[in-house]
Amino acid sequence: MRLNKYIAHNSRYSRREADRLIEEGLVTVNRIPTKDFSYDVTPEDKVAVKGQLIQPRKRGEVTMVVYHKPRGVLVTKKDDRGRATIYHKLPGKFRHFIPVGRLDYASEGLLLLTDNPEVAERLMRSDLPRTYNLKIDQPLSPEMIEAMERGMILEDASEGGHEKSTITRMEFAPFVGYAVRGQSGKNTKLRVTITEGKNRELRRFFAHFGAKVLDLKRVAYGWVELNNLPVDKTRYFTRKEYETLHEYLKEARKNDKDRT
C-alpha cells in the first residue's frame, strides 16, 4: 500500500493531509524520514507521523455515524470563502471522520460518516438506494415521469449544477422509485429513490425540464434511515445497522475476489 494511502487508512489524517505531512518531512519509515510518496509499505515497516507510531487498523474495525446535516453547511474540510462546513458543526471526536458522499450546500438530511476509508469508498461507489424528499416548483409532467422510469442522457446537464462545476454530460439511471407526496399550487412534493450520488444529480435532472428544486432532504441511505434525528445531531449505528454493514462488506469483498 502506498505510503500516503497507508497513513490515511490507519490514522485520522486524510490522503491530502498525508501528502502534506510527507512533503514536510514529518513522516518516518523505520525511523528514517522519507518524502517518497510512492513508497510501498510492507507489514514489517514501522510508519510514524510527527514521532507517533501508526498502528495498522484491524480488518473489519469501523465506526459509523449518522449525521443530520443542516442546510447552509458544506461537506468539506475547508472552504476558501470561509463558509461553515460540517467539521465546524460536528463534535471534535468526529473531526477525522470521512463523509460517505456529499450533500450540497442548500440540501439537508442524512449523511453517513466513518473512520474507515475502505468502508467510506465502498459505500460511496455502491449502488445502494438513496432516498430523498424534495419539492419542485412545477407539477410533475409526463416527460419527467418517462425520464424517471427509463433514465436519460444529457450532453449538457450544466443547468442545476454549481456555477463553477465543469461537469456537462451526465447519464441518469432509471429511478428505483418515486411517489408524489403532495401538491400545493404549482409546487409538487416528491419522494424519490436513486442508486447514484452524482454531483447535484436531482437538481440537474429536474432543471432539464425547467423545474427548480426548492427543498432537498436525504432521508435514507441503503438500510439506514434518518427518522427523527434532529437537525445538526449525530448518532452511532445501531447493532442491527452494524450487522447489516458487515454482511454487506463481506459480500462486497467476496465479489471482488470472484472478479479477480
Description:
There is one protein chain. With 260 residues, the chain is of the alpha+beta class. The protein has three domains: 3-53, RNA-binding S4 domain (Structural Genomics Hypothetical 15.5 Kd Protein In mrcA-pckA Intergenic Region, Chain A, Roll); 64-126 and 224-259, Pseudouridine synthase I, catalytic domain, N-terminal subdomain (Alpha-Beta Plaits), CATH 3.30.70.580; 130-221, 2-Layer Sandwich (Pseudouridine synthase). The protein is 25% helix and 26% strand. It is built from seven helices and 15 strands. The strands form three sheets. Strands 5, 6, 7, 8, 11, 12, 13, 14 and 15 form a nine-stranded mixed sheet that branches. The longest helix is centred in the last third of the chain and has 21 residues, at 239-259. The chain is elongated and about 70 Å long. The two termini are 18 Å apart. The mean pLDDT is 92.
Roughly how many Å apart are the termini?
18 Å
Q: What is the CATH domain class of the largest domain?
A: Alpha Beta
Tell me the structural class.
alpha+beta
Largest sheet data? 9 strands, mixed
Strand composition percent: 25-35%
Number of domains: 3
> In percent, how helical is the residue content?
25-40%
Let me know the CATH homologous superfamily of the largest domain. Pseudouridine synthase I, catalytic domain, N-terminal subdomain
Return Rg in Å: 21 Å
Shape: elongated
Arithmetic mean of pLDDT: 92
This entry's quaternary arrangement is single chain
- Low-confidence parts, pLDDT < 50 over ≥5 residues? none
